[in-house]
Amino acid sequence: MRPGRLDRLAVALAGLLGALATAGAALAAHGRTEGSFLAIAAAVAFVHAPALLALGLAGSALRARALPIGLMTLGTLLFSGDLASRALLGGRAFLNAAPTGGTLLILGWLSLVVLAALPARRA
User: Transmembrane region positions (predicted)?
Assistant: First the structure.
């Protein structure tokens, strides 16, 4: 079965998060910024990049996977982006960006629980 747009998008987002996580971890390791914020931002991105990769590779076997893909992508960008902004720019991205991102990440993972309970699609 040929991968669809959503599959390719999820895989591309996984690659982007993986690259950003690697860059953030390298910056944190070399001590040029507030390392603890950057290290946490990188860790969160490192955790969610493989999750997005798996969702992209799941194909149509997992119904409504656009929901966890969207929640995890937006959540990671908000959470990690806010922490990276604090480390690199000295201030928050915007008020409540990290808590909002964290909430979206939790909802993304919980949406997988719901999707796993749905009946599988038939070919």
Answer: 38-57, 69-89, 101-120
Q: Is 59 left (phi over 0), alpha (psi -120 to 50) or beta?
A: left
Asked, for residue 31, whether it belongs to a domain, the answer is yes
Answering whether pTM is above 0.90, one says no
DSSP label of 59: G
Q: Confirm whether 75 is domain-assigned.
A: yes
Q: What is the pLDDT of residue 59?
A: 76
In a domain, 20, yes or no: yes
Tell me how many domains the chain contains.
1
pLDDT digits (tens, 9 = 90+) for 70-117: 999 999 999 999 999 998 888 898 899 999 999 999 999 999 888 888
Angle value at C-alpha 59, between 54 and 60, nearest 5 degrees:
135
What is the rounded CA–CA span in Å between residue 95 and residue 105?
A: 17
